[in-house]
Structure formats: C-alpha cells, structure tokens
Amino acid sequence: MAGRVRQSDIEELKAKLDIVEVVSGYVSLKPASAGSFKGLCPFHSEKSPSFNVRSAPAFYHCFGCGAGGDVYKFIQEIEHVGFTEAIEKLAEKSGFQLTYEEGGAQESSGRARLLAANQEASAFFISQLQTAEGATAVKFLNSRGFDDKAIAQFGIGYAPKGWQGLLDHLKAKGFTLDEAITAGLAMASDKGGYDRFRGRVLWPIRDSNSQVLGFGARKLYEDDQGPKYLNTPETPIYHKGSVLYGLDLARKEIIKRKEIIVVEGYTDVMACHLAGVTTAVATCGTAFGDDHIRIINRMLSADKDVPAEVIFTFDPDAAGQKAAMRAFADSGKFTAQTFVAVGPDGLDPCDLRSARGDEAVRAMIEVKKPLFEFAIKQKLAKFDLATIEGRVAAARAAAPVVAGIRDAALRPAYTRELAGWVSLEGNEVA
Predict the structure, then answer these.
(1) 48, 125 in Cβ contact below 8 A?
(2) What is the pLDDT of residues 38-83, one digit of tens each?
C-alpha cells in the first residue's frame, strides 16, 4: 500500500497549479469575463458552452449538468481515477515531488504502474526493431513509405515471435505477471503467462499527455492465424471507445486550427502528419462513437464566429460507405461543420502518399465535400439519372437523407440542391 500523500503537499501543489491551464489541456476555453473562461462541458453533450472555469477562486462549474469542483476533482472525473492518482498525475506533469506520511518513499499507484509497464513495453518494442528479426517490420514500414525518421517520430516497434520476450523483460524491470496481464500486455496460462503481441509491428496509443495507454499491432507473417489488427483489450487505463490515435501529436494543432481530420488507420494518420496535415487522428479498432464526438467537441471552438471543421476520410468500398452513413447519422452531435474527403481512385491517405506524394494528400483534404452532399450523392450513385424513372427513384432514395438533416436552415437548401442533381422540380423531391 502506498503511504498517504502529505496534506501540506496536497495544498502546496494545488496552490501552484493553474486550473485554467490544466483544464485547457482537455477543453478549448475562451475568455468569458475577468478571470473567467468558458467552453463546452466535457462531461455531457452540448452545443452552447455552459462550462465555466475561474482562476480565483480556482474552480470549475457546468451550469448544464452541475459538474464542478477543484483541479483535483476535474482530473478525477476526466481521467476516471481516484483522488490520490489525480494528485500523482498532476504532480508528475508539473514536476512536483510528493512525500508520503508512511515511510516517506513514494510508491506508485495502480494506474501509475500500468502506465509505467506500457512505457517500458514501448521501449522494448522499439529496441526489437534493431534485431535481425525486427528487420521484417522495418521492411514493411519502408514499403509503406515510412523511413527511419518517421518510424522514430511515431514510436513504432516490433513484438518478437517468442512467447515470453516482453514478459521476461518486464519481470526483469520489476513488474509482476499480474501487472502485465492487467495492462493487456500478457495473457494468463498454466505455464506462467505469455506475450499478447507476437510477430507484429506495433503503434503505441497515447493520451493527450503522451502517456502510453495501449498498442495497436498489425500482423506480418502468413502463418499468423490472428486478426490483421490486434489492439490492447479494455484495461483500467485503456478504453478504446474514448481513445483517438495520434491525438497526442495533433491536439495543439486541432485546437489552434479548429479542425480535426478523422482517418481510418494508424498508417493513414502517419501519412497525413508527414504530408503536413497535422490534425489527423484515427479510432483504435472500433467504430466512431459518442465518446469520440465528446472528445472532439471539447477541443473545437464553440464560438459561432470561428467555424470549426470535422473532416472524415472513408474508403470507397461498402464498409467505407457504411461508415459514411453512420457519420451522417451522428452529424447533428458535432459543434462543427462536417465534411468528407475521398482520395483519387479510392486511395486512402497512406496509399495516396506512397503513390503520388505529400502534395496529393494535402490536395485530397482541400477538395473535401460537405458530409450532407456526400451522403446524398452516395444514394444517387445507385441510379441511372439519364432516365426519368431513374431520377425519380433516386430522389425518393435520397429524400430520407435530406429529411435527416437537423439544421432547419440547411434542410431546404439541400432540398433545392437535390432537385438540381436529379433534374426535377423542388416540389417533386420535397
């Protein structure tokens, strides 16, 4: 058991912390009045800011859902950690040395141990790229257009084929089998456990503070009977539904530019960033959901005079079209305009960069189309618009999409656009 943090340290750390700066790491804030800032509440969905933060006295409060408290309470709620872990997290980030009443030596909390295990695992995987076996992973990455500098920038590593390479390494560093299993790095067995990731190239998945929460792993060998991509399972620190890969690299630019680009995979994120599109992120082996939307909304401006944009990229296949329609269904939940960017010849950002270079990736994003237009034209593409029957059938198929537009100003505008696209009168498609 870790000793109790000395009360004087708790008070001193709290006094040193700027709650506005801490909260700004999670929520886009703008000045509201003297010493007061406002933004979208990170604890419930809203389109108009009701979340307020004051520097003196230092507290936050949401007039919408009632959430509120001091800087420790905020970290507890936003990171889903206990009081002591919130203190330790803030102390670590600010370089404040804590002391403990029972024995004085700092002992890491359970969360801190899991984060440390993941960080050690990340270093181990990176080191394995330098081995003869790891050359297979390097060759794969090079074939996708990623050189050694890019590999290092994104912290990519390799998990060796052996059953206990990582586990033995972690044990030598003082971690237990139970900790490795809890962190999602190992699997339990009658013989003492074995590595979860074997013979795969790995991407570390980090939070906005660059702490490693888990990994995404792609198989490299034909005899690997597992899925193409294998991610860390749900753990006390990794929740795939509320994690965005690349957010640690993109967060500052997202807040600055009021733009976020959602791509479909790890290599697509890499391709975008290397091409200068530095607001790209991706989900981690799961569909885009409400938690992801909340993360995005709290980073983007709620100021109507500063329009924010969410840009999706989708593959042209059936799965990509399904994802596009799912995004359309969620479009009303964003506090931003929504767009879709599709690569020429259906190329995703990674393949596009490999085939045509960085400029092609940037051009792909620049020619984005509004999500509503994209969704409607997905429906129209299934019909022969050269015939009256085809145009009428197309209008009928697209009408529910237009009806699903929640913005009362946009809906009639797209009704007129649809009429033009199918060469019918407006009253014939309404």
Answers:
(1) no
(2) 998 988 878 788 999 998 889 999 998 999 999 999 998 887 777 8
Above 70 in pLDDT, residue 302? no
Residue 121: name the closest of 175, 161, 189 by CA.
Answer: 175
The closest of 139, 188, 135 to 164, measured between CA atoms, is: 188
Neighbour count for residue 387 (Cβ, 10 Å): 11
Which pLDDT belongs to residue 430? 59
d(CA 363, CA 373): 19
What's the rounded Cα separation, in Å, for the pair 381 and 316? 12
Name the average pLDDT for the chain.
88
- The answer to whether residues 368 and 337 touch, using CB atoms and an 8 Å cutoff, is no
Q: Are 270 and 146 in contact (CB under 8 A)?
A: yes
The whole-angstrom separation of Cα 395 and Cα 416 is: 11
Cα 243 from chain centroid (whole Å): 5
For 235, phi then psi, to 5°, come to -135, 175
Pair of tokens at residue 429? 């498609």
Minimal CA–CA distance to 217: which of 233, 235, 200?
200
Look at residue 410 in the predicted model and tell me its pLDDT.
86
Residue 328 C-beta-side C-alpha neighbours within 13 Å: 26
Tell me what pLDDT residue 305 has: 65
CA distance 246 to 294: 17
Q: Which residue has the tokens 């009362």?
A: 408
CB 348 within 8 Å of CB 280? no
| CA–CA gap between residue 351 and residue 157 (Å, rounded) | 21
Return left, alpha or beta for 95; rule: phi > 0 is left, psi -120 to 50 is alpha, else beta.
left
Which residue type does 363 have?
Answer: A
DSSP calls for 367-392 = T-EEHHHHHHHHHHTTS-TTSHHHHH
Dist CA 372 CA 363 (whole Å): 21
Whether residue 109 contacts residue 88, with contact meaning beta carbons closer than 8 Å, is answered with: yes
Whether residue 209 contacts residue 115, with contact meaning beta carbons closer than 8 Å, is answered with no
Residue 345 has pLDDT above 50, yes or no: yes
> What b/e readout covers 42-80, taking b as 16+ CB neighbours within 10 angstroms?
bbeebeebbbbbbeeebbbbbebeebbeebbebbbbbbe
Distance between start and end Cα atoms, the chain: 67
What region does 287 belong to: left with phi over 0, alpha with psi -120 to 50, or beta?
A: beta
**Interval 237-252 mean pLDDT:** 89
The count of other CB atoms within 10 Å of the CB of residue 287 is 11
